Amino acid sequence: MGRDLPFLIPEILLSLAVVAMLIAEMVRMARLALWFGLAGLAVATLATLPLLTADTTVFGGTYRIDLLSGWAKLILLPGTAMALLLARAEIAGQQREGSVYSLLCLVTLGALMLAGSGDMMLLVLGVVLTGLGSFALVAYPRDDAATEAGMKYLVFGAVTGSVMIYGLTFWFGGAGSTLFSDLGALEDKPLIAIAGLTAVIVGLGYKASLVPFHFWAPDAYDGAPVSVAAYLSVITKVAALFAFAQVLRDLPVESNWPLVIAMISAVTMTYGYLTALVQTNLVRLIAYSSIAQTGYFLMGIVALGTSAFAIPGLIVLGAAYVAMNLGAFAIILLAGRGLDDIRGFGRRRPAAGVAMVVFLLSLTGIPPLFGFVGKVYLFGAAIDAGYLWLAVIGILNSVLALGVYLRIVVPMYQSAPEATKSFDKPSPRALTAVIGVTAVLTLCMGLLAGLLPG
Amino acid sequence: MSFLALTLLAPLLSGLTILALRRAPEALALAGTVLGLIGAVGLFIAASDGTVEAVLPGLPDMPLRLVATPLTAVLALVVATVAVFVLTYATGYMAGDPEKARFFGTMLLFVTAMQGLVLAGDWIMLLAAWEMIGFASYLLIGFWHGRAGVASAATRAFLYTRSADLGLYLGAFLLIGVAGTSEISATLATTGAPALIAGLLMLVAAMGKSAQVPLQDWLQRAMAGPTPVSALLHSATLVAAGAILLIRTAPMMPGGALLAIGIVGGLTAVITGLIALAERDLKRLLAASTASQYGLMLVAIGAGVPIAALLHLIAHAAIKSSLFLGAGVFQHDREGTGLDTLAGAGRARPGIFTGFAIAALALAGIPPLAAFFSKDAIIAAALASTAAPWLLPLALAGSVLTGTYMGRALNVLWTGEAGPARTPVPFMAIGMGVLVALAAGLGFSFGALEHVLGAQIEKPGWIVPAMGLAVALGGLALGWFMAPARLLGPLLAPAQNGFTVAGGMDGLILRPSLSIAAACEAFEQRLLAAQVGLIRNLGLGTARLADRGDDTLFAFSIWIGQQSLRLGQDTRSIDTNFIDAAIFGLVRRIVEAGARARHLQSGLIHRELALTVIGIGLIVIVLLTAPHYF
């Protein structure tokens, strides 16, 4: 126990920050809550750095301190800080402002738990902790759309969550332990392995919005505040995908999980991009394209254990995806939710326009941007693992991706129709900071990817 | 090493400076390209003594490499040379444009990307450069994006070339996987089935970039950009990338892949030659001719003599940039590039026309101009190849057509009214003049070049030059004297339509994917709402149940309210008004909440969940029936 605590310093610091934020919110000092949150996230990020080289487990193997969970902290904590700033830009001065900040940090705590889970109980805890906070965040605006979105998210979460818990009991029965590292015992118990695997796919697939568990996502993103949509599209999603990797790398390959994950990957990216191709609402377009991006992550999960590119690929694309998707949502916050709202945006706001082009091109996977590096890794991983057909589908989809994202780029540089909403109002400082940081990361990290884990 | 850096960094830095400063773009651009040219010359001299290599940090285990062998150094030299003179010309051409800075900046970034591709020593670097070229060409083709149709033309070019990138990704990773390294020279030792598959995949990638049949139609549509852009794209850069890829990987190609390359190239040479002949627009004619000439290069690669393809690529780079630059001057004069509009334009500018004519004759293969030598090398290669019965007729037909469409273009430019005299165009004339001189004289350097590259081409006997000359003269005569309608006969209409099969890429890929996309959307929006079978009953039943629950809850609340009211009235010890307010307030709240819940389209959730359940079922079925399980 005493040995374990130093490995948990980032989580402990974040929890303390959340407590401080709740107190600040109680005395109605929302700005103070924001500062507590930012400081807590920053300190927790710094505290993660010395732990990056560790590869161990704590609390009897239930919580993993390894490369994946270390990088999850390094990606998700700063990502949450960006989301806090976005929320500040969007809802500053509203009632309950401070509770949004504390909920965001609390959900991130659950996300960290997901990404490091080495045990079924902890996995369930992570799913529930991320879920409860998210429902409230989605329903924050208290209008019809948000209430419906939150409701839908809740019902989906309840159903998939209970299916997951039910299925995990099979694994527990079969393996005699709740630790993932004991899943090897299922090698000769195929039916039990399948039952649990299906349940985990449902539970985490819902969190990561894989097809066909994605239905809540576009409605939730559209109904929620833009900053919350940005947060949900990156933080909980990346955490769920990392949790997927934690579970599946211990599951015997005999249960054929790589094949079924590969099929879901192919369906998810194709369905996501095709549907994104016909959206007219910018938030929904990005929502569907985020679903498609999840499919690319799955290519790395398919190759876990068979390709050396898999884990670095997941980490690199995870970091890239958080930066570029948050950036794109920040621009939506600035420009508006409709595809028409962005017409002429690039002409009126040249710097923000260039930033948006950088985000979208990086999402498409154009070099030398960050997204390209992640995709090269994951295509390589899929081919390495013998899933050539999956790589073919992935590359074909990156053509579709170009079509999807150019639908935003092209109108940005057309002339704006008369008397539209003005883009000239000054953007809040918090928003400018988020756009600047994410744009620089997206631009430069592609060139510095050699520094990332190998 | 330092020359390597100069070749790449000079254009990159000057491009970035232009984009940042937005001042003196012409001077900076020329400085950058001239420095790049000096770097390329130095690199060429250094590389002829021995390979120059630089290893940069890249991905872990896969560093980025730059390699200057004699082959890659020659290509870098060609790119740098064409860039200098095209940009000199552009100084005049873009003189009045308000967005000069963006133009020159993008052009330099494009040149940098191309040098990166040419000098790439590992597959990741090559992939990155390949994609950047695609993106930079998108920016350049769409430079005048405000004009009608330009943005869509640029998008189309980008999408089409990118779909063929599939081949490069798969081929490169296949080679990396087999060889265990990403270094290009090491992966070329691959043999057997992987080499064949990788070779065919590379061919797919090259077909997209070099506009080979059936992926040819994007190239002509890409004429929407400024003329210097076309001159650069069609000579030594974008389109050349495909042929360069095949030339570099030629040592690995087994016989089957070579045959496929030769046939694709031969068919393209003929088909796009016919399209060029049927064209009614000078720039589009030149664009089709580019595809046709790259087809001839592929024939040489397929015949197993990639050095002949390289020579033709070099000759073609000088010739085609000259032709486009000439066309640009005529376009300036006549405000259009339609052949009807340009009739007689050559008479008004005898100097420019002479340059254009020299380049045209060079392309047709008239001695001693550049392409005479390279085309002979291609015909000789086709003749000596084991696949000669296939390749030779296609190569000869492609050469005849070259003469024919160039003859026609010359005829149109010369016959007609000259119109009034024009203002001089000094920068344009200088840029074009040098390139024309190269187009005329480059052939004499080919012997020395073969020596440096260490690959001598056997000098053919009299039969090949005689055949080449006859074909060139015959083609030119046909083109000068006969109208295309008579030459092409029934082929005219399909040739004017670009021989699109089943609607071309639009019909084969674009429209189907859009309709699938619409179907997906409909599935999500409408099919869900459509009431079908089990799902309907489930959904409606649950909704009814929820409704009844709602009513019960409502009645219950009223009852509680009434009971409490009675309690309140009975005791009378508490302020009745307070109780009233509280209880009726509570009841009102609950009714409101119910009304709000009815607003929700909660029925949809059930249907979506039903689809989720179907998804779970499919996953279980896949897991149970998957092979190698039991």
TrEMBL record, chain A:
Record function comment: NDH-1 shuttles electrons from NADH, via FMN and iron-sulfur (Fe-S) centers, to quinones in the respiratory chain. The immediate electron acceptor for the enzyme in this species is believed to be ubiquinone. Couples the redox reaction to proton translocation (for every two electrons transferred, four hydrogen ions are translocated across the cytoplasmic membrane), and thus conserves the redox energy in a proton gradient.
The organism of origin for this protein: Pelagivirga sediminicola
Enzyme Commission number, as recorded: 7.1.1.-
InterPro entries for this protein: NADH-Q_OxRdtase_suN/2, ND/Mrp_TM
Record-given protein name: NADH-quinone oxidoreductase subunit N
Family: Belongs to the complex I subunit 2 family.
Keyword terms, alphabetized: Cell membrane, Membrane, NAD, Quinone, Translocase, Transmembrane, Transmembrane helix, Transport, Ubiquinone
A molecular function GO annotation: quinone binding
Domain NADH:quinone oxidoreductase/Mrp antiporter transmembrane stretches: 117-400
Subunit structure: NDH-1 is composed of 14 different subunits. Subunits NuoA, H, J, K, L, M, N constitute the membrane sector of the complex.
BP terms from Gene Ontology: ATP synthesis coupled electron transport
Top-level taxon of the source organism: Bacteria
TrEMBL record, chain B:
UniProt xrefs under Gene3D superfamilies: 1.20.5.2700
InterPro entries to which the protein is assigned, alphabetical: ND/Mrp_TM, NU5C-like, Proton_antipo_N
GO molecular function: NADH dehydrogenase (ubiquinone) activity; NADH dehydrogenase activity
Main subcellular location: membrane
Regions that span the bilayer: 66-89, 101-118, 124-145, 157-178, 184-208, 229-250, 256-278, 351-373, 379-406, 427-449, 461-483, 609-629
GO cellular component: endomembrane system; membrane
Keyword terms: Membrane, Transmembrane, Transmembrane helix
Function: NDH-1 shuttles electrons from NADH, via FMN and iron-sulfur (Fe-S) centers, to quinones in the respiratory chain. The immediate electron acceptor for the enzyme in this species is believed to be ubiquinone. Couples the redox reaction to proton translocation (for every two electrons transferred, four hydrogen ions are translocated across the cytoplasmic membrane), and thus conserves the redox energy in a proton gradient.
Protein name in the entry: NADH-quinone oxidoreductase subunit L
Lineage: Bacteria, Pseudomonadati, Pseudomonadota, Alphaproteobacteria, Rhodobacterales
